[in-house]
Design goal:
Blueprint: H1 20-58, E1 67-70, E2 77-80, E3 86-89, E4 101-103, E5 106-108, H2 114-119, E6 126-131, H3 143-150, E7 157-160, H4 175-192, E8 198-204, H5 206-220, E9 228-235, E10 255-260, E11 285-290, H6 303-318
Helix pairs in contact: 3-6
Length: 322
């Protein structure tokens, strides 16, 4: 007796995936949730440490007793060790609660140095200046325009052009005029926002050369010497009025990222490219990234687009969102 061959049925299912932006946003939300969870775990760990240290101190067994700062920062106060490390708070009746602590509007994690955290540059006290490449202007679809969109959580954001290419025939808005406008924009931002204590600079191509001049200008004026240049970013930086790499570390800069492409092709780059920095010994943090280290995928005209995620990540590591 023959058995009938099994029948195969096909079901067509129409799936509609959400847009890429929605998927990205959901991924970022999940990452933020995970980060918050890890922060809470760390806070609990340091809370237990605070209690143990405190009771050990009561028994005279420790010379690192936490010091209670009562009410100075609002609420019940916080507890720090003699070296300034935050180890607890009395937000709960039982003392040393499991919460992180808000100090001057910042969420602090137990275990952080209180003085270091309070001095950390934040989005509220830092001016970020993005200097585009020559012949690039605000509002155009270029790399630094996209970088500005990525930095939307920083309220003090100044986006500027370094002017027309000095070797172009068009004399409109030359580098001298652009430099005047940049200085005027910074002065106005500082006058309108007295809470600004820090500045971060980023410059692409001749914008990198302009960045050096802006840092030099800030350092040379007595009224701006108190403004800390906490971060700077070069992207294939070129010395003004030349075709050579701007590889000098800007004066007064504390932390720096230098992004460049080393294989300049005359067809796509007109031999323009940045290079390794000199005079970096005073930098606290230095990142140098050669995007052509493994293959020549990048050119001078496209590197500003490629630099966006690197600069975004670097600035966020230096300047806390508050």
């Amino acid at each position: 007796m023959k058995t009938a061959a099994p029948k195969h049925y096909y079901v067509r299912i129409n799936l509609s995936l959400p847009p890429a932006d929605a998927i990205l946003q959901e991924g970022m939300r999940l990452a933020d949730t995970l980060a918050d969870s890890l922060v809470d775990i760390q806070a609990k760990k340091w809370s237990v440490y605070a209690r143990d240290t405190y009771f050990a101190g009561l028994k005279g067994g420790s010379n690192h007793n936490p010091v209670f700062i009562g009410g100075e920062f609002g609420g019940g106060g916080v507890v720090v060790t003699p070296d300034g490390t935050l180890v607890g708070s009395d937000n709960e009746i039982s003392g040393y609660g499991f919460d992180t602590v808000d100090v001057e509007g910042q969420r602090l994690v137990f275990g952080e140095k209180l003085t270091e955290v309070l001095e950390t540059p934040t989005s509220k006290n830092t001016l970020v200046v993005l200097i585009y490449g020559s012949n690039q202007f605000v509002g155009e679809n270029v790399g630094f325009e996209n970088l500005g969109l990525q930095l939307d959580e920083y309220p003090h954001l100044l986006q500027v052009s370094p002017g027309h290419n000095p070797f172009d025939d068009d004399p409109h808005f030359n580098q001298e005029e652009a430099f005047f406008e940049i200085k005027k924009g910074i002065e106005q931002a500082l006058a309108n926002n007295p809470q600004i204590e820090n500045i971060a600079l980023a410059g692409y191509s001749w914008g990198g050369g302009m960045l050096y001049d802006v840092a030099e200008w800030l350092q040379s004026h007595e009224e701006y010497k108190s403004i800390e240049i906490v971060a700077a970013a070069y992207v294939d930086a070129i010395t003004l009025n030349s075709f050579t790499a701007e590889n000098r570390t800007p004066p007064g800069v504390q932390n720096m990222i230098n992004i460049y492409q080393s294989n300049a092709d005359i067809r796509s780059d007109i031999t323009l490219n940045g290079g390794k920095l000199s005079g970096t010994s005073n930098l606290k943090v230095l990142q140098e990234i050669d995007l052509d280290e493994f293959d020549n995928f990048h050119s001078h005209v496209s590197i500003d687009e490629s630099s966006v995620p690197f600069i975004n990540s670097f600035l966020r590591s230096i300047i806390r969102i508050k």
